[in-house]
Specification:
468 residues, mainly alpha, two-stranded antiparallel sheet, 6 strands, transmembrane helix, membrane, cell membrane, metal-binding, metal ion binding
C-alpha cells in the first residue's frame, strides 16, 4: 500500500486513530471541570444563567464523551492485532496501569455519568453536583493513568527484564511516577483546559457578534477569556520545564525538535524556521537567533549543545515531522497567550463584550487547542522513534507478524468509518453550538424516560382495579 511495509502501515494506523481520539479526551477533561464550576456557581449565586449555560454544554459533553470512549476502545484493540510483540514484552507493566485506569477512572465516570446527565430533577441539586464533580475527577484520574503508562514508554523506570524478555515491575512507585510523568501530566491537563476554554470562548464570541447583550454568551466568553489569560502563561512555563526534562532524559528528541543536526560547542542557535533534510543531515535555509537555543534549554548562553551528528543514524527520529509539529504547537501557544492578553486589555477598557475584533480573534482560535494538542502528541511520539520503549525496545521489533496488505486494508477501513461516524458527531455538535443558550435551557434530563415495554402488567392491574 503506497510502497509502505507492515511496520510503517501499523504506525500510520495507530497515528491515525490516536490523532482522532486525543481531541475528545482533551475536550472532555476540560469541559467536565468547566461544568463542575458552572454548577458550583449556580448553587452559590442562585443565578439561572449559570444553570442555562451548564445545560447547554452538558449536551455537548455527552456527545464528546461518547465519541472519546468509542475511539479509545478501537486503539486498545490494535495492541493485540498490530502490536502483539509489544503487548507481550510490556504487558506486565502497561497492562496493570491500563487496568487501574478502568477500575478507578472509568468506573467512576460511568457510575456518575447517568446521574449527571439525567438526574438533576430526580436526586436534587447537591447530590447532582456531587455526581458532576465525580465525573470531572474521573476524567483527571483517567489522564493520570494514561499519561503514566505513556510516560513510562518515554522514560522507563522501576523495571527489570525477566528470562522471557518481558519488562516486569520491581518498584511500582517508580513505574508510575517515572521521570517525565509529572511534567507531561501537568502539560496535558493544562492543554485540555486551554482547549476547552478556546472552544467555549469561540462559541461565546460567535453569539456575541450577533447580539452582545445575551447573558449566556457573555458568561461563557468572560470565563473562557479568564482561563486563557491565566492558563496560557502557566502552559508556557510548564512547557519550558517539560523541555528541560526531555533534554535530560531524551536528548535525541530535543535535537530533532530544535533541528540541531550539528553540535555547537559555544552556544546553540534557536532555529525559528528551516527545512530539515534528514538524508543530508542538515537544516537548509535556516533562520535562527544565535546562541538563544542554549539560553532556553540550558539557561546559559554559551552552553554546549550536542547534535544529531553524535547519534547513529539508525537511532534518529523522523526529524522533519518532529521539527514542524513542535513549531506548530509553540506558535499556537503564543497566539493563545496573545488572545488572553488582548482580552485582559479589553476587559480593563470595558469593551470585552463589544470589541468585534477580539470576538473574531477568539472564533479563529476556536480549533487552535485541538491542533496544538495533536501537534504536541505528534512531537512526543515521533520524537521517541525508532523505539516504542525509549532506548530499550525498537518499533520494528514490536510489530505483529502481519503482511502489509492486511494492515493496509484495516487502515483503509478505519479511515472510511472514522470520517463517516465522527464527522456526523462533530456536525451535530456544531449544530448545537450554532444556537445560544436560552432562558430555561433544557438539559438531557428534560424528557421523561420512555417505557420500552409499553404498558407494564402492574400498570394494567392498577387501571383494571380503578375501572372496576
Amino acid at each position: 500500500m503506497f510502497g509502505l511495509d507492515a511496520v510503517e502501515l501499523a504506525r500510520a494506523q495507530f497515528a491515525f486513530t490516536v490523532t482522532f481520539h486525543i481531541i475528545f479526551p482533551a475536550f472532555s477533561i476540560g469541559l467536565a471541570s468547566y461544568l463542575a464550576v458552572l454548577e458550583a456557581l449556580w448553587l452559590w449565586t442562585g443565578r439561572d444563567v449559570y444553570l442555562n449555560v451548564f445545560n447547554y454544554w452538558l449536551k455537548i459533553f455527552a456527545i464528546a464523551f461518547g465519541m472519546g470512549v468509542v475511539s479509545g476502545i478501537v486503539m486498545s484493540y490494535q495492541f493485540g492485532t498490530n502490536w502483539s510483540v509489544y503487548s507481550d514484552k510490556v504487558g506486565p507493566v502497561i497492562g496493570p496501569l491500563m487496568a487501574y485506569e478502568v477500575l478507578t477512572a472509568f468506573f467512576l465516570e460511568a457510575g456518575f455519568l447517568g446521574v449527571m446527565l439525567f438526574g438533576l430533577k430526580r436526586v436534587g441539586p447537591k447530590l447532582h453536583f456531587l455526581a458532576t464533580l465525580m465525573v470531572a475527577i474521573g476524567t483527571l484520574i483517567s489522564a493520570f493513568w494514561i499519561l503514566s503508562a505513556n510516560s513510562w514508554m518515554q522514560t522507563p523506570a522501576g523495571y527489570a527484564v525477566n528470562a522471557e524478555g518481558q519488562f516486569v515491575s520491581v518498584d511500582w512507585l517508580k513505574v508510575i511516577f517515572n521521570p517525565s510523568f509529572p511534567y507531561r501530566l501537568v502539560h496535558m491537563v493544562l492543554a485540555a483546559y486551554l482547549t476547552t476554554s478556546l472552544v467555549v470562548g469561540a462559541v461565546g464570541a460567535w453569539h456575541l457578534l450577533r447580539n452582545p447583550h445575551l447573558p449566556g454568551p457573555r458568561v461563557m466568553f468572560s470565563m473562557a477569556m479568564w482561563m486563557a489569560a491565566l492558563v496560557a502563561p502557566l502552559q508556557i512555563l510548564a512547557g519550558d520545564q517539560h523541555g528541560l526534562n526531555t533534554l535530560e532524559h531524551q536528548p535525541v528528541k530535543i535535537m530533532a525538535m530544535e533541528g540541531h543536526f550539528e553540535s555547537h560547542k559555544d552556544g546553540a542557535p534557536l532555529y525559528l524556521f528551516g527545512w530539515p533534510d534528514q538524508a543530508e543531515g542538515k537544516l537548509k535555509w535556516a533562520l535562527g537567533i544565535p546562541k538563544f537555543g542554549s539560553l532556553i534549554l540550558k539557561h546559559q548562553i554559551d552552553a554546549p549543545m550536542a547534535g544529531l551528528d553524535t547519534i547513529p543514524r539508525k537511532d534518529w527520529p523522523p526529524v522533519p515531522i518532529t521539527f514542524w509539529s513542535f513549531r506548530i504547537m509553540v506558535g499556537l501557544g503564543m497566539l493563545m497567550l496573545a488572545l488572553g492578553l488582548f482580552s485582559l486589555w479589553e476587559r480593563w477598557r470595558g469593551r470585552l463584550y463589544i470589541n468585534r475584533g477580539l470576538h473574531r480573534f477568539a472564533i479563529a482560535m476556536g480549533p487552535a487547542g485541538f491542533i496544538a494538542v495533536m501537534a504536541g502528541w505528534i512531537t512526543t511520539e515521533t520524537g521517541r522513534q525508532p523505539f516504542t520503549v525509549y532506548g530499550l525496545l525498537r518499533t520494528a521489533d514490536s510489530v505483529s507478524p502481519l503482511a502489509a496488505p492486511a494492515v493496509g486494508a484495516s487502515l483503509l477501513a478505519f479511515i472510511i468509518v472514522y470520517f463517516i461516524i465522527f464527522a456526523a458527531g462533530v456536525l451535530y455538535i456544531l449544530r448545537l453550538m450554532a444556537e445560544p443558550p436560552h432562558a430555561g435551557e433544557p438539559g438531557p434530563s428534560s424528557a421523561q424516560p420512555v417505557r420500552t415495554a409499553g404498558i407494564t402488567p402492574a400498570a394494567g392491574v392498577v387501571q383494571g382495579a380503578v375501572g372496576s
